[in-house]
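Memo to structure team: turn this sequence into structure tokens by end of day. - J.P.
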Amino acid sequence: MEEILDVERAFKLLKFSIKLMCYCEQGHLNHEKFDTDVLLKFEGENMNLAEKQFLPEEIIKLSQMNVGVCFGNSAIVLEAAFKEADLPRDPESDDEYQSTWRLVYAVRNAFAHNMAFPVWEIHEKNGRRRDVTLTLEERPYVVKLSELHNQSFEYSHIGELPNWFQIKDKSIKLIKKYRADSAAQ
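Reply from structure team:
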């Protein structure tokens, strides 16, 4: 199940980007040591990343943007894992599997069209604009997809980053269960 490993790696990269952002925001990054000349050697040609390319205040903003890019990547990889599982989509169903997939797909769409400025792209087609209720840590959580179309994506729409990691864990469990159930038949 390579796709599950890909999901774990994508979320590890997201965690790394969050830690890097916090490290930068707290002023721990040594700007002089970081912003030095780097030469990358390739077979065909070399690439030089010159020193003094970043202002100290830019590094914080770029580290924050990197979190968004890694978040978007995690959504794309997670949705790909759902596709790999080969479960038929059922737009009329609100079971945990379909609801979780519907939310992951909607988040993926927001980032796939523009990672720098993600916007919810939730169309009426196939019931995608229906609200989603998930059980996270034994409590229901509702995402009002019906109200989000064309709005800028905000982490608060999904209950902030902690919920995203719970959605990842739930998704992996659901995918593994579906695969196990399919293999048993």
